[in-house]
UniProtKB/TrEMBL annotation:
Protease in keyword set: yes
SMART domains: PDZ
Domain of life: Bacteria
Keywords: Hydrolase, Protease
Listed GO MF terms: serine-type endopeptidase activity
Protein family (similarity comment): Belongs to the peptidase S1C family.
UniProt-recorded name of the protein: Do/DeqQ family serine protease
GO process annotations (BP): proteolysis
Species name: Myroides marinus
Gene3D superfamilies for the chain: 2.30.42.10, 2.40.10.120
Residues in PDZ domain copies: 283-360
Amino acid sequence: MKKILGVFLICLLSGSMTLVGYKYFFENRSTVDIELSNTDANHLSNTRSGIVPSSAIDFTQAAENTVNTVVHVKNLSNVSARSNPIMELFYGYKPEPKPQIGTGSGVIITEDGYIVTNNHVIANASELEVTLSNNETYKARLIGTDKEMDIALLKIEPKNKLSYIVFGDSDNIQLGEWVIAVGNPYNLTSTVTAGIISAKARNLSKAGIQSFIQTDAAINPGNSGGALVNTRGELIGINTMISSNTGAYVGYAFAVPSNVTRKIVEDLLEYGNVQNASLGVSGFELTPQIAKELNVADIPYGFYIQELVGNSPAQQSGLRQGDIITKINNKDIKTFVDLRSIINTKRPNDKIEVEYVRDNKSLATTITLGKNEPRKIELRGLELQELDAAEKEEWNINYGLKITKLINSDFDKYKDELLGSILLSINDIKVENVNQIKNILNQSNQKQKIKVTLMNKNGEYLRLLI
């Protein structure tokens, strides 16, 4: 009985303490209402967390409109099989070319069947095939290409009018802006991924010519030539490459800006080739350290002109070595890529407004752009032409000139070996442009032979005395 009474008293005491605790911790505490301000709400709605807020951007309309304009491109080519000298010598056997299939994506830009894709998607094709989103398949013909910018234009003859994409203005894209990438990765049908603009005017070329849009939208093999669009479904870029060791998506990829693409397409349709404009300057970015060395530390950014091409539009306008270009058409110029990204959208005879600094004075001028044509020079019976950025990428070199013509008939018996080869050096001095060759010739004895080093189309090195 005493035991039962003890248990009862303990329970009663515990209940009293619980009641006191409740009164202290809950009833005596004042209630605090937390109100989420509009600013906080907007901030949260734009975060890229796994939980999508109800006010998140809707990609459905843009995606639905775009998938019907993206096509699958098949490249059929014949690749020469490696020969076997023993089999050829004893049995006369020569291997047959092996068929090879490459695939990528393309974007329909007109209702009558013009399609934009990447140059590398259709390179070396003996036959091109395009499959639409409704599984209709057509033979395609190549209209033209721009190897430097990795753009190609195709044409099919559809049975009916096609859905096509509308060009947006890639100059107006913003860092952090939402985009979607549409293509055919891994030979699948149209796939849509979302991301943001990670960077603008990104350069991946040794010569600093190209100017890409960088995005974190997932782009994988097969997406090349596909569409990068904004949330309104407007084309702002043509997906072109992934930067990774494996070739698979690792967090960022690149696209050719739509304004550059549109200009290339218009050139190919109107002229049959790309009309590249030229300003005629070379130089480097004005960093704080360089600005201090040049005693122009108060200039925050710019492109320092180190050299002007003789009789170029820049020289004719009055620009000089040492001038610092700060703006073109009211757009900041901080690097050579910034400058090229504007010139890439222009044609010969287009005018640009250039703002620059000379002797700490701000000046401005209007320049009429010239035509960007590779310069040529004769070297003892060989016609040489400066390499463009695409050719340097193709040969995996950053200097040299191409042999385009044999002027001296003494070279005719070596025609197949010499034409199209790259002259790398003269008397063991590497050469990259016409001016260097002029200087070497001016300093050499015309009666003495010079030693030249060439690289032929098979990648073999040749040394000649000419």
